[in-house]
Amino acid sequence: FPDTCVGTDSHTPHIDSLGVIAIGVGGLEAENVMLGRASMMRLPEIIGVRLTGKRQPGITATDIVLALTEFLRNQKVVSAYLEFFGDGARSLTIGDRATISNMTPEFGASAGLFYIDEQTLDYLRLTGRDPEQVALVENYAKTTGLWADALVDAMYERVLEFDLSTVGRNMAGPSNPHRRLPTSALAERGIAVGLDKALAEEEQGMMPDGAVIIAAITSCTNTSNPRNV
């Protein structure tokens, strides 16, 4: 069986990126675990998400996850366990995978798992794990059939396909991350148009249309990925 983890934070599935099934639970259930009692996990619908293609230059994991959020919300994956696989998933670093797994609650799902592969081992080495620990993880995953190569023919109740090469630069919100807005659509939405006029108004101390008033870097999704900061 894969390693498991429960936590009281809604973004506990962040660690799913390492091949650990991590789900969020309530405070009382977490206290039960701390006292040595078992935690029951219902086996929900398990959905495979095949990631294909290769992302375009300059596209970040945040761009990808905003597009994925919109896609998966439309696919009704509420409470499901998602397993990301395919050539596209293989090309993502652990930091990129963590960005995607972190947004599992926004997908509506309970878990967003990636397989254990060389990217996982590279992360363990990067974060100072002993060679013996890295070898143990690799040996355990391969022996138990949890290594990525052993799961290429895994069967799912549903398989969804998402092409990474179709993802452009994205924004989302306000409030709802699944309300995606491609930056290429800003002009047609009447946002960020008339740059010369806006600059002139700004010089006069005015607030031009399309001005960014508040900007935030979501700490749990973006700043955990070195590529995004």
Biggest sheet: strands side by side, in what order?
5-4-3-6
Instruction: Count the E strands.
Output: 8
Percent of sequence in beta strands: 15-25%
CATH class: Alpha Beta
Task: Draw up the topology in text.
Elements (H helix, E strand, L loop, with lengths): L3 E4 L13 E4 L2 H8 L11 E7 L8 H14 L6 E5 L1 H4 L3 H9 L1 H4 L3 E4 L3 H9 L4 H13 L14 E6 L6 E3 L7 E3 L12 H9 L26
Parallel strand pairs: 1-2, 3-4, 3-6, 4-5
Antiparallel strand pairs: 7-8
3D structure, described in words:
It is a single chain. The protein has helices at 27-34, 61-74, 87-90, 94-102, 104-107, 118-126, 131-143, 195-203, and strands spanning 4-7, 21-24, 46-52, 81-85, 111-114, 158-163, 170-172, 180-182. It is built from eight helices and eight strands. Strand 3 (46-52), helix 2 and strand 4 (81-85) form a beta-alpha-beta unit. It has one domain: Aconitase, domain 3 (2-Layer Sandwich), CATH 3.30.499.10. Helix 2 (61-74) runs parallel beside helix 4. It has 229 residues and is of the alpha/beta class. 31% of the residues lie in helices and 16% in strands. Strands 5-4-3-6 form a four-stranded parallel β-sheet. The protein has a two-stranded parallel sheet with strand order 1-2.
